[in-house]
Amino acid sequence: MFVCQTPFCFFIITCMSRLIISLVQFDIKWQQPQENLNRLAGMISPLSGHTDLILFPEMFSTGFTMEPERFYEETEGIAYTWMHKMAGRTGACMAGSYIVRENGRYFNRLLFVSPEGEESIYDKRHLFRMGDEHLHYAAGNKRIVVSCRNFRIKPFICYDLRFPVWTRSRNDADLLIFIANWPESRREVWKTLLIARAIENQVYVAGVNRVGKDGRNISYAGDSMIISPKGEVISSLEVNREGILTSVLDLHELQRFREKFPVHLDGDRFNIVD
Known about the structure:
Layout: H1 7-16, E1 18-25, H2 33-44, E2 53-55, H3 68-71, H4 78-90, E3 93-102, E4 105-113, E5 119-123, H5 133-136, E6 146-148, E7 151-157, H6 164-167, E8 175-180, H7 187-201, E9 204-209, E10 211-213, E11 219-221, E12 225-227, E13 233-236, E14 243-250, H8 251-260
Parallel strand pairs: 1-2, 2-3, 7-8, 8-9
Antiparallel strand pairs: 1-14, 3-4, 4-5, 6-7, 9-12, 10-11, 12-13
């Protein structure tokens, strides 16, 4: 077994155990994809070379629209191309959702892309019935695990946050991410559930939400935040203000906590049946 004791080797090991994550909280211009992409490019430009993972809110190019037939992309459309380009330019992984048409159906699709162009997709599982999302979009049926800087990451979209069985980690994730358009009227629910998902899964949780008012006159407060595996708010963004939140997550610290308090060893085994 090779054991490195040099300062340089310690630096490499330490860096490999840390993930710098940036949450972009902004006011999505209603159904204006190109304007939103242009604004975001300017917002994230200072992050180039200074972060590992950049998260955008749900439907970041259009807002939470129920007109997918007007604003959909094919599988490699404008938002897809933009995310690949920005990942390469910033040197960071990226995740955000937009509208995709595939095989005649519309999906609220999260794309996770690396600077090298490797990609994974997650289609929103739980469609927001109270907003008629289930009438316009098809639901996904697959959970995914992606990797960035040795962190195992499970991505989810907005309403998924309310369903702990779907978001449950079986000791196969270190970070859960939730990208959202979560209304201000339910902001306490948003904050409470983010904390709950962190505690029950012993993982870091990152939740990024939009601000402003959409084309349906619904207001959003943001409340983007990062939660520790103990349920503590590590950092959060100012309410009702655009901004970028950047924090450092420590994988070794998470592993030490799990070893000291191994809740996962007593977790229930289960299968999800459609």
